[in-house]
């Protein structure tokens, strides 16, 4: 099966919850997505224990669910230059500070409880359930460092992704997005790049 995506909680309309922006579920076949090398990395299994776990995944039915949700911006999240560590060319390396917003954590708990309830009612046995913590142990789609807006005091770029203060400077990576959404941003970036480039006015040069 590999993996599938289910977009059932992209928005949340629940009178019992204050959450509104949600995300998507990914459904995994544990065998085809849980390769031996990933088992070694995630669980530390080796030798006979690794063989037994691989055979278990191969011969017993099961599925893994993960949730990718909206990530709210936090002022404290940032990238700085390390004052001591440099790369082979003597340039300071980047230091990344990133922790999840309280909204992200509550959303993760809510969504996983929802899917666990659905699976339990369908007769499934939940063997592990772990919500997102404050620290981000994996990877992420970083956004918002040059966010877009109409107020120059609260944003860096205008609605055409052009700098409020530097005329003609347009930014077309993820920096303009105030929040992350819950999907890979590549297609959104491409669509926005077409939009912005279509609106850029290139002055006509008058040749002598």
Structure characterization notes:
There is one protein chain. With 208 residues, this protein is of the alpha+beta class. It folds into two domains: 1-71 and 102-135, no CATH class; 141-200, no CATH class. 28% of the residues lie in helices and 15% in strands. The protein has helices at 30-33, 36-43, 48-59, 102-121, 186-199, and strands at residues 3-6, 23-28, 64-69, 78-86, 92-97. A hairpin with a 5-residue loop joins strand 4 (78-86) and strand 5. It is globular, with a radius of gyration of 22 Å. The mean pLDDT is 85.
How are the elements arranged and paired?
Elements: E1 3-6, E2 23-28, H1 30-33, H2 36-43, H3 48-59, E3 64-69, E4 78-86, E5 92-97, H4 102-121, H5 186-199
Antiparallel strand pairs: 1-2, 2-3, 4-5
Distance between the termini: 65 Å
Sheet with the most strands: spatial strand order:
1-2-3
Task: Give me the number of helical elements.
Answer: 5
Q: What is the structural class? A: alpha+beta
Mean pLDDT: 85
Low-pLDDT segments, ≥5 res: none
Could you tell me the number of beta strands?
Answer: 5
User: What is the succession of H and E elements?
Assistant: EEHHHEEEHH
Share of residues in helices: 25-40%
Number of domains: 2
Largest sheet: 3 strands, antiparallel
**Alpha-carbon Rg, integer:** 22 Å
What overall form do the CA principal axes indicate? globular
Into which percentage range does the β-strand content fall?
Answer: 5-15%
